[in-house]
Amino acid sequence: MSELLPFLVSGLGVGAVYAMSGVGLVVLYRSSGVLNFAFGAIGAVAAYVAWSALDREWPLALAALAAISTSIAISFAYGRLLAPRLAASDSTVRSIGTLGLALVLLGFTEWFWGEQPRRLTLPTDSEALELAGVRLTYTRVVGLAVAVSMMTAVGLLLARTRIGLAMRALADHRGLSAILGVRALQVDTAAWVISGAFAGVCGLLLANIVRLQATVLTFLVIPAFAAAIIGRLSSLPATVAAGLAIGMLEAVAVLLPGFSPFRAATPFLIALAGIVLWRDASRKA
After folding, report:
1. Rounded-to-integer distance, Cα 172 and Cα 40, Å
2. How many CA atoms lie within 13 A of 151 on its CB side?
3. Which residues, listed in sequence order, are joined to residue 135 by a DSSP beta bridge?
């Protein structure tokens, strides 16, 4: 067990980012019915903005603020200007529309910043603390704290505020909610803003944990999709649990003989197992 602990702790940090990404996807899907395939690309742009700001010796807080503001602005612009034009289409078409945004953002980042991989080094990387003999950088600690705070805040928002009630109403009965006076465009826009904030934070953390490269960050959203699918694109607690589990299992998988080359398949295997189990449970019910 002692040899597993470093991998579990390391996986917990990545898993928290997967969980946070999954929450950002689920919040938007529950409100608007859009599965945002551009989530990772939006986060990549935010990470590059932070890298540029830090390269110009901006303070970390200001660089992070600029990055997250950028991701929110991109998400807001799409949700307010382009997404409504697809509102009459079914959920599949609206979701596929975000692929176009992802390709545009991916092309822009590679044109503006180049294709070479970088590392987003943060000032908090140089200091660390030990937990049960495992070294944790302050970046990981702060990242975990931010992830917990943001996920808790979204849970409270959905449960205890009028905008949260409107989001849940649209998720359950979109047409009826609109007839009863729920302003779908405003609620959807709020969901896009929340999703953009989550994308920005996740992009920053993943660029630090893994590496800063547009294609890598764009496709690192796949484990988040797996977590969201396990949560049935509706349950935040199940999505969070799945994200954490995927992160830790990915980390532990390197210890399995012969499994290391297939480590990237871990999210898909977990998602498939979750879908099968829930399908069986639904049939029995």
Report:
1. 27
2. 26
3. 130
- List all residues 6 or more positions away from 229 whose beta carbon is below 8 Å from its beta carbon: 271, 274, 275
Could you give the dihedral angle defined by the CA atoms of residues 221, 44, 100 and 222, in that order, rounded to the nearest 10 degrees? Answer: -10
Paired tokens of 43: 């986060």
> Could you tell me which of 83, 271, 102, 77 has the C-alpha nearest to residue 184?
83
Among residues 52, 45, 51, 55, which one has the least CA distance to residue 200?
45
pLDDT, one tens digit per residue, over 81-90 is 988 888 778 8
Helix (H) or strand (E) holding 86: none
Q: Is 121 exposed, middle or buried (0-12, 13-18, 19+ CB in 10 A)?
A: middle
Residues in the chain: 285
Listed as ranges, residues in the chain with pLDDT below 50 are none
- List the chain domain ranges: 5-119+135-284
CATH number given to 5-119+135-284: 1.10.3470.10
User: Amino acid identity, residue 104?
Assistant: V
Select from 33, 53, 195 the least CA-distant residue to 120: 53
Reported as type and span, the H/E element at residue 43 is helix 39-55
pTM, 2 dp: 0.89
Pairing, β 128-131 against β 134-137: antiparallel
The pair phi, psi for residue 189, each rounded to 5°, is -60, -40
Task: Dump pLDDT digits (tens) for 193-234.
Answer: 999 999 999 999 998 888 888 888 888 888 888 888 888 888
